[in-house]
Design brief:
The chain is α+β, with helices and mostly antiparallel strands. It is built from twelve helices and 14 strands. The strands form five sheets. A three-stranded mixed β-sheet has the order 2-1-3. The chain has a three-stranded antiparallel β-sheet with strand order 5-4-14. The chain has a three-stranded antiparallel β-sheet with strand order 7-12-11. Helix 3 packs across helix 4 and helix 4 crosses helix 11. The longest helix has 25 residues. This is Stage II sporulation protein D.
Length: about 350
């Protein structure tokens, strides 16, 4: 009888202890990706894997609604693809890599600023930019493949590398994205914003840009019939008139104002009415023609593209280029910081 009782007790004990031993044995060999390795008793390993997963969690996709004027439609373009499409259209792919990076940073900042301000009511649907010089010229990769042919792959690879190197970065002043204006070629100096647009911005002030002399559009000469100039400007220009009289210049050495007879024009007005490359010009009457010599190409405010390329050739990186052409700015590197802008937080005050 005693033997029978002892046998039952031992059998019952085995039923209780054996499963526990099996659990202990196999718990050290689990292959679950979040399990702590058997060789590492640190219980914090699980949370470190979870933190790593959260760190690489992608943020919300940022899409830019672009009005394609030639096609009369709105195209939704992922932000970094849009930046690449702008860089490819606005700056020669043959430029130095650091210049292309600077252009990518400027292009991204420009469109983030537009998104921060909200939809443009003058554009159809929910578009915030056009694909023209009214905002930034844009072409997608398919369009460049058609235009560049066999060279498309190499050129787009270079441009995409520049975009990726600056991904998520924007230029800010006092915590907000700047008005990231740029142009092709300076006359040796950039222009104060207020002297072209009549709106002062502390980071858009005149700086030297001597590298532009290498641009094919650094200087240009155009000839017009006197009658055409008179018609476009609505003035009379008698023979013997010295057009170089009564001229005032800006800090950037462009025309601030010029007076013809009793009419005074802003330099920008002359440039636009006569479709000149620049508002830095000299002109004179020669018989029945007006000869106009310009220096530079574009409005002159912000970053000079040929200047950026010249700086890059001298060994400057894109941050140094940006710091030269935009004063007292910062480059915000946190992509989540950038994404906050494109959510159009109306509570944040925007620049005028």
């Amino acid at each position: 009888m005693k033997k029978l009782i002892l046998t039952v007790v031992l059998f019952t004990g085995l039923l209780i202890v054996l499963p526990a031993l099996l659990v202990l044995f196999y718990s050290g060999t689990s292959t679950h990706p979040l399990a702590a390795p058997a060789s590492d008793p640190d219980s914090d390993t699980i949370s470190s894997y979870q933190d790593e997963a959260e760190e690489y969690k992608p943020g919300p996709e940022v899409v830019v609604p672009v009005y394609r004027e030639g096609q009369d439609k709105v195209e939704d373009v992922e932000l970094e693809d849009y930046v690449a499409g702008v860089v490819s259209a606005e700056m020669p792919a043959a430029f130095e890599m650091e210049a292309l990076k600077a252009q990518a940073l400027v292009a991204r900042t420009f469109v983030v600023k537009q998104m921060k301000l909200g939809d443009d009511e003058s554009l159809p649907e929910d578009a915030i930019v056009t694909d023209t010089t009214s905002h930034q010229v844009f072409k997608n990769e398919e369009e460049w493949e058609q235009e560049w042919g066999a060279e498309a792959e190499d050129r787009m690879e270079k441009i995409n590398s520049a975009v990726e190197a600056t991904a998520g970065e924007i230029i800010t002043y006092d915590g907000s994205p700047i008005t990231a204006s740029f142009f092709s070629t300076s006359n040796g100096h950039t222009e104060n914003a207020e002297e072209y647009w009549e709106t002062s911005l502390p980071y858009l002030q005149s700086v030297e840009s001597p590298w532009d002399v290498g641009s094919p559009r650094y200087e240009n000469t155009k000839r017009y019939p006197v009658a055409e100039i008179e018609q476009r400007l609505g003035v009379s220009i008698p023979e013997g008139t010295d057009l170089q009289e009564n001229i005032e210049r800006t800090e950037g050495n462009r025309i601030a104002s010029v007076t013809i007879g009793n009419t005074t024009f802003h330099g920008r007005e002359i440039r636009e009415l006569l479709e000149l490359d620049s508002s830095d010009f000299e002109w004179q009457r020669e018989g029945e023609e007006i000869v106009i010599h310009t220096k530079g190409w574009g409005h002159g405010v912000g970053m000079s593209q040929y200047g950026a390329d010249g700086m890059a050739k001298e060994g400057n990186n894109y941050r140094q280029i940006v710091d030269h052409y935009y004063q007292d700015v910062e480059i915000a590197e946190d992509s989540s910081h950038m994404e906050a802008y494109v959510l159009n937080d109306k509570d944040e005050e925007t620049e005028s």
